[in-house]
Amino acid sequence: MRLSQILHEEHQRTLTVLDELDGWRGKNKPDDIEQIKGLLTDLIDVAQSDITEHYAFEEEHLFPVLRMNGADFMANMLAGEHQMIRPIAQELSAMAQKAIETGFDDQSWQSFQELSFDFIGHETFHIQKEEMGLINAINSLFTPEQEAPLIELYKKGS
Amino acid sequence: MIGAGVPFGAEQRLLPEWIPLSFFFVSLACLPLGWILLFLQAENIASFQGGFGPVLAALHTFTIGVVLTTAFGASMQMLPVASGAAMNRPIGVILLLVLLLSGIGITLGGFAHYRPLIASWGAALLCLSALLYALMLVRLLIRSANLKLVRNHVLVGALCLLLAAALGAAMILNWAGLISFNMPNPRLVHAGLALYGFMGLIVFGFSRIMVPMLSVSDKTNDRLAIWGLLIALTSLLLWVGGFFKIAPIVALISALIHIYEMFTILKGRIRTRLGPEWTVIRFGWIMLPLSLLLVIGAQWTDNKANITELSILVAVLGWLVSFIIGILQRIVPFLLSMQIARQTGMPELPSKLAAEKLTRIIGPLHIAAVGVTGLAIIMDNSLLLQFGSLIGLVSGLSFLTFLIIAIKRKRLSLEKMKK
Q: Exposed, middle or buried, A23 (CB in 10 Å: 0-12/13-18/19+)?
């Protein structure tokens, strides 16, 4: 499997979770935390693997190559977005963890919803740009042989 | 992968902001203007049998004013972003803009006031702009290693544009008495090449980039699209060859293939929630085969007059303008967001630049306007046509306001981010 495919599939997974999260938009807080527990667990997982590790890998191994090939603008823009999204994802993940343990009250549900939709907007737009730019660029920047060690590294890290 | 492009070093693919915005601004200014002309000419629509005059000017306000201008602007800006090709030099695009806008203004003026010589000058400028556009497209796409399928659609479309422009100019010069031009059914051939040849294939091609990107889907079907293009090409050749009864039937097959692919892309999207602009885009998709059914009806029955007018209305306002209204509601904030990124390094969320309340009314009002004007043509009722035009006018003005608000919000956002 090519590196682009691995990253693409992670994007798909993230988008699926975001879509489920979006389904709660404007809804009252769940009567029973079990109703949303699966989604909260997925959200925590996404924040860890598809945000923290995925972002770190891109910043460390892919963006420098983009910059070397004259795509500073794209690399800087995507890295800047990472910086903006990362704290949102971390805070959301912490909220989700707390909710699994103690449930939501009206105030925490309201805060969770607001932050969720902020996260959905930024992360979806970010993925759209990565899919248009970065994912395609990877295939033109690396041969399958060149990217094999990177894939190994990524698998070890995650 | 979602979408098919590589904006590798996307800042090198962004024209200065005012250039694409000028194309889009003119296009969106022509939209309410076209509805005003339709309103004013409501009583003459029923008796219109072709030929020059204000009704022709009203029709071309939509076709060249709205559709052609958007196609030129979007091609010059979105193709470099999406295809990975280095964009054309801004000076060339500015020249294209000047030729196109002066050509549109002079041609429409000549049409509306029965001034053949003036219209001839306008046609000459439009032909020059079509030629320059085709040259720039070829240059742009040949340098692109990606998007071969879109490239084929766009190149065939550009050829149709040149033929349609030449034919249109020949008709005007003939009207002005400058040349003697004898060809059976030139208007039909011109309309077919312009609407389904150029504009149609551009829409087919662009849709394969824009729809997956905007709906977050990767369910494109290249093989199906190749068949669709080949069948479309066959139908265009049949149309140019004078096989008017067969050509639209073949075109219908191509249209259905395209619509099938579009709905498949949409069905395979990851995000369930779609914005309000998708209602008018889907409406446009349905109007495409409907317009061809009407063309078939017009060619196979004796009752040609109203069906022909209805088919033009459904093709231009129902299909093409609807698609443009839907897609531009997403493209404009996206481009403005990228312009913010070019200056600050960070893009703004496009949703924060878009006036959400307006997006909820622009599409539905346009759909209502198409429905009411269509009904008016069937019933031959000019009062109803005026009512439909007024609804279209409100939609058009709302969209123009949407563009102005987006530009204003972009400026505010830029100031905020720079601080």
A: exposed
Tell me which residue in B6, B341, B345 faces A136 most closely, judged by beta carbons. B6
Is A127 in Cβ contact with B273 (below 8 Å)? no
**ipTM of the complex as predicted:** 0.81
pLDDT tens digits, residue range A28-80? 999 889 999 999 999 999 988 878 888 999 999 899 988 888 778 888 889 98
Cα atoms found within 13 Å of the Cα of residue A117, Cβ hemisphere only = 14
CA-to-CA distance for A131 and B5, rounded, in angstroms? 8
Q: Pick the closest to residue B24 from B351, B363, B399 (CA basis).
A: B399
The amino acid at B351 = S
B16: left (phi over 0), alpha (psi -120 to 50) or beta: beta
Question: Burial letters for A94-132: b for 16+ Cβ neighbours within 10 Å, e otherwise?
Answer: ebbeebbeebbeeeebeebbeebbbbbbbbbbbbbbbbb
The angle at the Cα of B333, spanning B331 to B337, to the nearest 5 degrees, equals 115
Other beta carbons within 10 Å of B285: 23
Alpha-carbon dihedral B24, B187, B252, B214, rounded to 10 degrees: 0
The answer to whether the beta carbons of residues A95 and A115 sit under 8 Å apart is yes
From chain A residues 7-66, the ones with a CB under 8 A of any chain B CB are 8, 11-12, 15-16, 18-19, 22-23, 25
- Write the CA distances from B40 to B61, B305, B388, integer angstroms: 13, 20, 12
Give the tens place of pLDDT for each residue, B191-209.
999 999 999 999 999 898 8
Is the pLDDT at B270 greater than 90, yes or no?
Answer: no
d(CA B161, CA B195): 9
Q: A44 near A93, Cβ under 8 Å?
A: yes
pTM (2 decimals)?
0.90
Domains in chain B: ranges and CATH: 10-413 (1.20.210.10)
Residue B14: C-alpha distances to residues B11, B209, B342, B357 (Å): 5, 17, 9, 28
Cβ separation B8–A69 shorter than 8 A:
yes
Tell me how far apart the alpha carbons of residues B228 and B226 are, in angstroms, rounded to a whole number: 5
What is the spatial distance between Cα A65 and Cα A75, in angstroms, rounded to a whole number? 9
CB B135 within 8 A of CB B159: no
Q: Which of B7, B84, B346 is closest, CB to CB, to A80?
A: B346
Residue A116 and residue A87: Cα distance in Å, rounded? 12
Q: Taking the domains of chain A in order of start, what are their residue ranges?
A: 3-22+31-157
**Which of B75, B70, B73, B88 lies closest to B13, judged by CA?**
B88
- The CATH code belonging to domain A3-22+31-157 is 1.20.120.520
Question: Which phi and psi angles does A49 have, rounded to 5°?
Answer: -85, -50
